[in-house]
Amino acid sequence: MSTDQIRLDQPTDGLQRLAARFSGHAYDLHRHETYGIGLTLYGVQQFHYRGSLRASRARQVLVLHPDEPHDGHAGEGGAFAYRMLYLDPAAISQALDGAGPPYVAEPVAHDEATARAIDEAFVDFPRQLEPIAIDALIGRFADLMVRRSDGERRRSRRNVALRAVTRARDFLVAESHRVVGSEELERVSGLDRFALARHFRSAFGTSPHRFQTGQRLMRAQAMIAEGVALSEAAAAAGFADQSHLTRHFAARFGVTPGRWAALSRRS
């Protein structure tokens, strides 16, 4: 019997935690609109990223950037377990006083300070973190990523229409149950659709469309983990049908909704 398992808490104030273990194949190629900061607990975690096959071993830390495709599987014929924090790039930038999100060139490293921070973030997992604990963690990981980044804090946000794209982002979150039109975002933000796309990516590391699709998929993901039928979850998250959900779900999470249901319910 497979011992593969995923446990995931609810995203709160720019942070979400995941704990998982796998033997063999874990995820197909996919990408997130968040940073992924992880710690391998045991085994070898291999993944394709930026054109190369990477490997993370016990107590190594990995940093994955928003919108960067990656997959996942066990290396060296064994099993692996890991913890991952998904961090909103907007929250990271806010913690850095508006600086652009840090760029970490090397995805895998021995980084004991970050490993300890991840350990602390999971002390009471999956119990919900308190708000001020989340604030402290985001600030800490922001500083740790700057330390690993390719230079000093970048001030690229001075040229970003931050208030405009934040209004658009908030609107996309509020309307995550349906498809939003370009004209609506133009009215909300005050920017034309092409300027909005450019500024949105500079601020948040992804496109408005991918961001909203991610919100809808997280809504479906939580419902499926609670036992809601796939067809019902698809409709509630604004997808045309179950197959439509399945295509987007696999692209976002690297597993199908059916496999996610099995993994998240396993004890």
TrEMBL record:
What domain of life?
Answer: Bacteria
Domain named HTH araC/xylS-type is located at 166-263
Q: Which UniProt keywords apply?
A: Activator, DNA-binding, Transcription, Transcription regulation
Establish whether keyword Translocase is in the entry: no
Q: Which InterPro entries match?
A: AraC-bd, AraC_XylS_family_regulators, Homeodomain-like_sf, HTH-like, HTH_AraC, HTH_AraC-typ_CS
Q: Which SMART domains match?
A: HTH_ARAC
Q: Name one Pfam family in it.
A: AraC_binding
What name does this protein carry? AraC family transcriptional regulator
**Species for this entry:** Reyranella aquatilis
Q: What is the lineage of its organism?
A: Bacteria, Pseudomonadati, Pseudomonadota, Alphaproteobacteria, Hyphomicrobiales
